[in-house]
Design brief:
The protein contains ten helices and eleven strands. Magnesium ion binds next to loops.
């Protein structure tokens, strides 16, 4: 595949991606898929999606885990509900991630991804070692399935994420870099963070956002690509600098308004195609 194939974040029945039937309308060669809900995560369902993707000539480049009970309502709620960090749901969600890894394997997809949750910045935090341990177990399971595990960025600073990757110490642990999340969560300037995390970045999102007036306390706002504070041309130039050649996966997290979502993604595709032509020339 040529450098920077365009992609879109897609959903079957869960997550904030575009609906399955919109993928071919968009005409993109790659998708990242939000894992279907547990009852639709069977090997048969995976085989059927695999065959449909093959027919559409679309490659699935990562499967994202997500869980019942997660809420992105505000930053304190994210801290309490997202990923493998909350202790009360950690083991059951870990088991779900193993299912999702097996599901991705049937899809012949070599990357499983998730928002791990708020990893503490302080390695001495009481829950730190437990979060390291569950991530190691998940990496090892993915490794047995010949897969990488990609951590979605946003909830940690680049330095915090580097410390965590170091502590987990698994060669298949990588990063899915989302520049808008750095802004939405107020965790750092996206282009600087991308440079710091460069050796670990294996997939990325193309999403835009504006800073909150109280970064880190309240969310910034997600906006259509090109209208926010990411500065997409700087972002792509930096991706080129660091040698990233993987998919440019567009995210527009407004599934409640599918018409607008589809139109804004179509516009994002033209923005990215134009920038690609200039930057890769
Ligand atoms: Mg993202």
């Amino acid at each position: 595949m040529d450098a920077w194939p365009i992609g879109v974040f897609a959903s079957v029945d869960a997550g904030l991606g575009v609906a399955w039937n919109v993928i071919s309308e968009l005409g993109v060669p790659t998708i990242q898929l939000h894992a279907p809900s547990p009852e639709h995560r069977t090997p048969e369902a995976a085989k059927s999606l695999r065959d449909q993707l093959r027919e559409m000539k679309v490659e699935c480049t990562a499967v994202f885990g997500g869980f019942e009970g997660e809420s992105y309502a505000d930053i304190p709620t994210v801290e309490k509900t997202i990923g493998l960090v909350p202790e009360s749901t950690r083991e059951s969600r870990f088991s779900e991630m193993l299912e999702i890894s097996d599901f991705a394997k049937v899809l012949q997809c070599d990357a499983v991804a998730l928002h791990l949750g708020f990893v503490p910045e302080d390695a001495q935090a009481p829950n730190y070692q437990d979060i390291v341990a569950v991530t190691q177990r998940l990496c090892d399971y993915c490794s047995d399935n010949d897969q990488f595990l990609h951590l979605e960025t946003g909830q940690e600073t680049a330095a915090g994420l580097l410390r965590f990757i170091d502590a987990v110490d698994r060669s298949n642990l990588k990063i899915n870099f989302d520049p808008a999340n750095m802004i939405l969560y107020g965790t750092g300037h996206p282009v600087e963070a991308l440079r710091q995390l460069a050796p670990h970045v294996r997939s990325i999102h193309c999403k835009d956002g504006t800073w909150s007036s109280k970064p880190g306390e309240t969310f910034g706002s997600e906006v259509p690509l090109g209208q926010g504070d990411v500065i997409i041309s700087d972002y792509l130039t930096t991706l080129k600098e660091i040698g990233y050649e993987g998919p440019l996966t567009i995210e527009r997290e407004i599934p409640q308004d599918p018409v607008r979502q589809r139109n804004e993604i179509l516009h994002a595709i033209t923005v990215l195609e134009d920038l690609k032509a200039t930057i890769l020339a």
